[in-house]
């Protein structure tokens, strides 16, 4: 994977969107021997939020500052597949961005030699538009590289917060990049990951970062997995096909992608799943709508599929003509830069940094409830007697937003912004904890007085009062079913499952006691004698009607089933795998290939439709409060349920946002960069938004159910320090973080935390939370 978008800039949320390009095939596209095709199951990009360094990255003294090599570490700026980037200070009080490589790379044969050679090459890069590489240590337990710290936001953050650039700003941006790339190439380096997160915007032009060690990590990644390093949407076709073929012309292609992003707010190959974007980059023309007409021919030439036809950097620079770096300083950015520079000045002269833990060691508990000192410490900075916020003086805990009344420019009004104290309290001791049978890709759902922990092959119910196992799901299968049933999860008062007998597809229901309620035949062999479709999912249930998603040789479909009689009320084919449906009252809402439809629940007749709601491949989520239908994908869009009239748009992003949970007139959701939102359903106004103290995570795509919400609080799963999963609980009224839970002393993959996202489910004031191995019950409204 590529380096994180955690950049040598002031601490602010920085996106990490590098993904392995090794993905599954898809039947809707012609076969290609190398290029990945869109997957049948959704993928989701994840984005890192700045967070404190973990103990594996450095040695820390109790009560003293953390150090990596000779550097005093202040804060973790971000992380990704390659490693972590820290804000640190040299013995001479110079601020540096310190990149620490993950252990799995350092332990790979020949990596350290490659790292040493790449670091030496990077130190030879000189140019106005590239921060200098200052120091490196290939022999450290975890190799590291230090570059000059630039107190400036990334282009990604500039566009996301302040908006797209005007033509003059685009020319200044392109000119800076066209000067930076030859300086990098002349040192024998191909960047391979030029993207908005790796371009900083300063008062006197852009700065290109993260050019130092990409080839060393790329070679290691290819050796270990056969995958290609890079960021979907900004990779050249030849880089997607084979990283070894990526030369300087690949960086020119990325330059064109960056200009499109700066002009439009998204890359030239759209949004959606990783494989979808990669496929378009190789096979489809770029989307240049929104690029100024005068720059269109140049950008199009940079994005030529044939690297031999792309212009060299010198030709790009000449075509851009005279430019003024001041044109980059769009409204609001100058003030932002001033705050970051003030922040850097405070850090340079700050006294030694004290360490503060997430919770006092004596109050920390393991998953099993035993007392144990916490080894997880959150880093904060106090200077001149003042605790200062990230981006506005010095770093506060985990990258919280600075201004209480100002929201990013994402559509909708700003509302208020939650601001925590210097640390997020640890959560209460669980009311009870019980062992949990480990399942792969599991989910946790409430069914009456039991919690169902399930995956496709197995479903186990646990008592909500004690956590004891009550029953394991079992079915009476028809004689023509030869394989195991597939569990589909809980909808309403039923745990659903399906099975297939070749000529028939079955849908089963189980109640909260584990008793089978019904077995209905929902699909049958077609007139042509082909196999019956398989019941793949239960998308929604209202009253006695279930909306079922099907798949088979003829593609995908949706059907409505009366659960009392087993009658299939209606069925229809859909055009792609990213369909979604939501039923409520007498309506069924269906999103199919970008078109939103309202169907009669029992007849399937169409009441209204709205085309072009999302771009195909965006994997949307649907929810409703009865009057308003909410569609979330890369933005939140509201439609009047009665007639489909567009009401409002909010939280407009370049990456996928979560499903929305609607309660008491508000919709709760979160975005990739790690911000949780509360939206007023009447007009889409942001009631509040709060940046998570640790990196949010989701199950991704269609499986992402959004935050878990009760009447007073909401809970979101997180990845915390050291890559140990946990969760954070926020107050629903104003977004204030109330408490966070992370296994004390846990390591990624161990029994106390594991690598799996925590599963969260509310029942009144009780929050049920499941790790890989343990089920807990917490009092959720503890402050």
UniProtKB/TrEMBL annotation:
Keywords: ATP-binding, Kinase, Nucleotide-binding, Serine/threonine-protein kinase, Transferase. Gene3D superfamilies: 2.40.10.480, Phosphorylase Kinase, domain 1, Transferase(Phosphotransferase) domain 1, YVTN repeat-like/Quinoprotein amine dehydrogenase. InterPro entries: Kinase-like_dom_sf, PQQ_rpt_dom, Prot_kinase_dom, Protein_kinase_ATP_BS, Quinoprotein_ADH-like_sf, Ser/Thr_kinase_AS, WD40/YVTN_repeat-like_dom_sf. SMART domains: S_TKc (SM00220). Residues 71-327 form the Protein kinase domain. Transmembrane segments: none annotated. One of its GO terms (molecular function) is protein serine/threonine kinase activity. Residues 1-67, 403-432 are annotated as: Disordered. The keyword Cell division does not apply. ATP binds at residue 99. It comes from the Bacteria. Residues 1-32 have a biased composition (Low complexity). This is Serine/threonine protein kinase. It comes from Streptomyces venezuelae.
């Amino acid at each position: 994977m590529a380096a994180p978008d955690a950049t040598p800039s002031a601490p602010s949320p920085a996106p990490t969107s590098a993904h392995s390009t090794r993905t599954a095939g898809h039947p809707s596209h012609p076969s290609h021997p190398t290029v990945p095709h869109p997957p049948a199951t959704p993928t989701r990009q994840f984005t890192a939020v700045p967070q404190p360094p973990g103990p594996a990255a450095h040695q820390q003294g109790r009560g003293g500052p953390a150090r990596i090599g000779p550097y005093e570490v202040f804060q973790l700026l971000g992380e990704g597949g390659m490693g972590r980037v820290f804000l640190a200070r040299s013995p001479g009080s110079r601020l540096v961005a310190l990149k620490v490589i993950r252990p799995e790379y350092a332990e790979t044969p020949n990596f350290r030699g490659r790292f040493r050679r790449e670091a030496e090459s990077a130190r030879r890069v000189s140019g106005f538009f590239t921060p200098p590489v200052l120091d490196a240590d290939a022999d450290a337990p975890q190799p590291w590289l230090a570059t000059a710290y630039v107190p400036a936001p990334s282009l990604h953050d500039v566009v996301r917060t302040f908006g797209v650039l005007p033509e003059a700003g685009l020319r200044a941006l392109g000119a800076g990049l066209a000067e930076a790339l030859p300086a990098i190439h002349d040192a024998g380096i191909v960047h391979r990951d030029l993207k908005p997160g790796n371009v900083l915007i300063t008062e006197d032009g852009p700065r290109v970062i993260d050019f130092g060690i990409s080839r060393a990590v790329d070679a290691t990644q290819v050796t270990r997995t056969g995958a290609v390093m890079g960021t979907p949407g900004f990779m050249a076709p030849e880089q997607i096909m084979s990283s070894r073929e990526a030369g300087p012309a690949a960086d020119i292609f990325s330059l064109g992608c960056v200009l499109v992003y700066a002009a439009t707010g998204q890359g030239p190959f759209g949004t959606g799943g990783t494989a979808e974007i990669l496929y378009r980059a190789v096979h489809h023309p770029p989307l240049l709508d929104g690029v100024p007409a005068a720059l269109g021919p140049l950008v199009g030439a940079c994005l030529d599929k044939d690297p031999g036809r792309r212009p060299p950097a010198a030709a790009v620079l000449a075509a851009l003509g005279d430019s003024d770096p001041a044109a980059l300083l769009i409204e609001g950015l100058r003030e932002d830069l001033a705050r970051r520079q003030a922040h850097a000045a405070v850090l340079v002269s700050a006294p030694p940094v004290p360490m503060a833990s997430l919770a006092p060691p004596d109050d920390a508990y393991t998953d099993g409830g035993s007392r144990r000192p916490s080894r997880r410490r959150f880093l904060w900075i106090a200077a001149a007697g003042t605790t200062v916020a990230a981006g506005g003086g010095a770093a506060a805990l985990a990258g919280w937003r600075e201004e209480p009344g100002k929201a990013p420019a994402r559509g909708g009004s700003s509302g208020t912004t939650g601001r925590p104290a210097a640390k997020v309290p640890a959560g209460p001791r669980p009311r009870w904890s019980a062992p949990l049978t480990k399942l792969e890709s599991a989910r946790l759902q409430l069914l009456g007085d039991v919690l169902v922990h399930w995956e496709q092959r197995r479903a186990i119910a646990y008592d909500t009062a004690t956590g004891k196992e009550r029953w394991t799901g079992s079915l009476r299968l028809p004689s023509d079913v030869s394989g195991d049933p597939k569990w589909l999860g809980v909808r309403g008062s039923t745990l659903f499952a399906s099975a297939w007998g070749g000529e028939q597809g079955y849908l089963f229901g189980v109640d909260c006691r584990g008793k089978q309620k019904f077995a209905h035949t929902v699909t049958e062999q077609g007139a042509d004698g082909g196999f019956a479709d398989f019941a793949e999912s239960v998308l929604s249930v209202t009253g006695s009607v279930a909306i079922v998603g099907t798949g088979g040789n003829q593609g995908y479909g949706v059907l409505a089933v009366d659960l009392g009689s087993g009658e299939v009320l209606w069925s229809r084919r859909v055009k792609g795998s990213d369909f979604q449906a939501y039923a409520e009252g007498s309506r069924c809402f269906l999103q199919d290939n970008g078109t939103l439809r309202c169907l009669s629940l029992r007849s399937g007749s169409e009441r209204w439709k709205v085309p072009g709601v999302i771009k195909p491949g965006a994997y949307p989520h649907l929810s409703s409060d009865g009057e308003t239908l909410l569609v979330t994908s890369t933005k939140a869009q509201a439609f009047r349920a009665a007639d489909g009239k567009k009401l409002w748009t909010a939280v407009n992003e370049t990456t996928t946002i979560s499903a929305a949970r609607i309660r008491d007139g508000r919709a709760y959701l979160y975005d990739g960069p790690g911000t949780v939102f509360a939206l007023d359903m009447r007009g889409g106004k942001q009631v509040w938004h709060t940046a998570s103290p640790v990196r949010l995570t989701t199950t991704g795509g269609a499986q992402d159910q959004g935050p878990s919400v009760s009447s007073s609080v909401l809970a979101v799963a997180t990845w915390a320090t050291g890559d140990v999963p946990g969760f954070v609980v926020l107050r629903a009224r104003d977004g204030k973080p109330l408490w966070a839970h992370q296994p004390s002393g846990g390591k990624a993959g161990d029994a106390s935390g594991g690598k799996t996202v925590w599963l969260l489910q509310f029942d009144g004031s009780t929050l049920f939370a499941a790790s890989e191995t343990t089920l807990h019950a917490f009092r959720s409204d503890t402050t």
